[in-house]
Amino acid sequence: MDRALFARAEAYMAACTDGGVHDEMHVRRVLGYALSIAGEMPEADGEIMALAALLHDVGRPEERADPALCHAEVGSQKALDFLLAEGYPPARARRVADCVLCHRYRADRRPETVEAKILFDADKLDQTGALGAARVIRFGGQIGEPLYQVGERGRPLPGEEGEGPSLLREYRRKLKGLAGQFYTPAAQALARARQPVMDCYFAALAAEAEEGWAAAQRALAQLLGEE
After folding, report:
1. What string of pLDDT tens digits covers the 227 residues of the chain?
2. Most buried one in 12, 19, 38, 40, CB count within 10 A?
3. CATH assignment of the domain containing 97
4. Which domain holds residue 39?
5. CA 143 to CA 139: how far, in whole Å?
């Protein structure tokens, strides 16, 4: 791969990064995952893979400015335009753009090429394990989502369907079953290895919240002479 093109793609990525959990560090982790997975799959094109990983989130600023937009759709067009302006072969530029388009889960737009499947997996791997837990906590803070919802007398709720948005609901709805949603064997193995770390963390979070609430209730009852 041409080093100068890679450097310009890096610079373009950095200029399009909107911060938050989809920052430059996220992109570089996805790049590392993607190249590692591609290294175990001889049929994967490493250059296509590297460019797609670098450019996969360039549509984030537009989506943040207008949530009605899909960053994968915007980013796919931006990636295509960037590569064509760089003189990159149009057919290969379209392969990169297709990877970017399909990296966000959509039931009607699943990745079909090996490179698109690798990018999908690499992006989702950054939602697994301790890093995944840290990112979802950080994202919840970004959008003002609570750690958990509360019910009667302020008792923490477990994050089940029907509750309002919360960190625990995000875990139960999405992150708990994430290890079974990967396309490539390498990503599947890494996700399975990381899943217990995430499960342990969220189990501890729910348990500590419940224990803290119960202790407060006991202390309050004693103070009020209600025991």
Report:
1. 889 999 999 999 999 987 788 999 999 999 999 999 999 999 999 999 999 999 999 999 999 899 999 999 999 999 999 999 999 999 999 999 999 999 987 667 899 999 999 999 999 999 999 999 999 999 898 889 999 999 999 999 999 999 999 999 999 999 999 988 999 999 999 999 999 999 999 999 999 999 999 999 999 988 898 76
2. 38
3. 1.10.3210.10
4. 1-116
5. 6
